[in-house]
Amino acid sequence: MTGMEILKRLFRDSIKPYSGKLLISLFFMVIVALATGATAWLLDPAIEKIFLDKDNKMLVYIPIAIIFTLFIKSIATYIQVSLLTEVGQEIIADTQIKMFTKIIHADLNWLNKIHSAKIISNFLYDVNLLQGSVSNGIANGAKDVLTLFCLLGVMFYQDWKLASVAIIAFPLVGILTKRLGQRMKKASTESQVETGTLASLLSENLDGTRIVKAYQQEKSEISKVSKSVIRRMKKITKGAKTKGAASPFAEFLAGFGIAGALYYAGIRGIEGDLPLNEFVSFLGAMMLAFQPLRRLASLNTTLQEGFAAAVRVFDLLDQESFINEKFDADKLKFINGDIELCNVSLSYDNNKKALKNLSIKIPSGKSTALVGPSGSGKTSILNLIPRFYDPNSGSIRIDDQDIKNLTIQSLRSVIALVSQEPILFDLSIKENIAYGKKEATDEEIVNAAKAAAAHGFINEMPHGYETLIGEKGFSLSGGQKQRISIARAFLKNAPILLLDEATSNLDTESEKLVQDALESLMKDRTTLVIAHRLSTVIKSDQIIVLDNGKVSEVGNHEKLINQNGTYKRLYEREF
Ligand code: ADP
Ligand code: MG
What we know:
By secondary structure, the chain is of the alpha/beta class. The protein has 2 domains: 3-317, ABC transporter type 1, transmembrane domain (ABC transporter transmembrane region fold, Up-down Bundle); 339-574, 3-Layer(aba) Sandwich (Rossmann fold), CATH 3.40.50. It has 19 helices and 10 strands. Strand 1 (339-347) and strand 2 (353-362) form a beta hairpin. Helix 5 packs antiparallel against helix 6, helix 7 runs antiparallel to helix 9 and helix 18 (557-563) packs across helix 19 (566-574). The structure holds adenosine-5'-diphosphate and magnesium ion. Magnesium ion binds next to helix 11.
């Protein structure tokens, strides 16, 4: 994207909604600029009337006029800065809400490929840089341009020849800022990427503290993080130096203009060709022009920094979603919950197929177990049913309706999922259970917990159902967390139940409790369960054995044992 395209998009997406406030702000910027110009201009009558004409009245009026002008200028500046700050923060908030909406609806395929910490850094750090470029860059740039314009106006009004000499170095300043801008773009992109990397490293270390300690990798982690911190520091320093270079060098270049103007003014002064009052006013305007000029010289670096951030924010916002509803999608007409996969193929990365032209039937009201070596495609099948992924070919039907033609809401509302890793939020136990049904009554929540064999231990917690889970639920055991997530599924009371190795990381005692809870949850529902231990699937109505993305055997336990095939081998290996 070119700078112009980025600017256009920023105007369209972020700035336009605030055009009202920005126009008011612009109005006050014009006042600030005019007031600055007026201060310089006032030097002309000041010299003429006070010093040359010795006018006593003017001796009072002009200082009052100067105070008045500066008063107006300070009020206008304050209003203008306040408005811009508001707009800037509102743009941040808007952009973040848009980003979060995008993230929460994004396809799993994309989310799984990108480290969550990078998204967080994008969300917090890049958006701030973007805002900085909009309010410090675009908006303050406008103020500086206006001010410079007014001051140049005074300079040209007083003496156009002198003014022309004074701006002789402007093209050089232009070239300088362009160069620095390019350098800034690179440094800024690099520092943003490094910020993402650092965030990932931190998040991994916080998640894996126990492993880091157990394997005594503190030193190597410190060195890894230090390297990233230092790389980031260097990039940021490079950016800051680039930005810092703009003003002094622009000032230096502008010095040629000033020197030239003074020289030329001196010659004309000696010849008596330049009235002192005009010259002083000219000089005042030229000096006042320095500050906006210096800031404008670094404007491009500020913009480039923000543009680099904008590109990263746009990347996220433009992330295409492949799992969409058809615009004329129907609601699922739920009958029994018969599920059928017809000739389904799925590949995650366009090369290796995780599922190969696979067809299975999952009968309603019964339990179907998926077994097979890891990597055989069990989770992939589970992922297809709520449309976490879409198959590359083939179809999935529920009660004879292709799920691609259904609204995602109606599809997911009939499905409850208990995942391998119980996911609990930083909320109370009660709110965690009611996560999928916010309007549930206390009685419903307690009943769900009882059915999930969780009521007992919840009651023993310090605040019972109101106990806060805390980050990731460290205070609960795996089995307890799993039972809370089963209670959540109970409360949702959906007719289709998906269980992904829900008992895989439990000790035998909690496994027994969780297993009992699951069995009562499975009753009369269409259940698809991935079981890591064959002992848990013996009772299933149907067992599907997968091998390398294909179905190798189907039947119940007895039938498969008698078949003397893969299942029997897996079974014998386990017992
Ligand atoms: P299982 O659950 O039986 O262990 P999966 O369905 O998870 O198997 O995986 C099937 C195949 O797809 C494996 O080869 C795995 O490496 C691959 N796979 C699974 N998930 C992804 C993913 N998000 N991206 C890329 N490949 C994946
Ligand atoms: Mg799996």
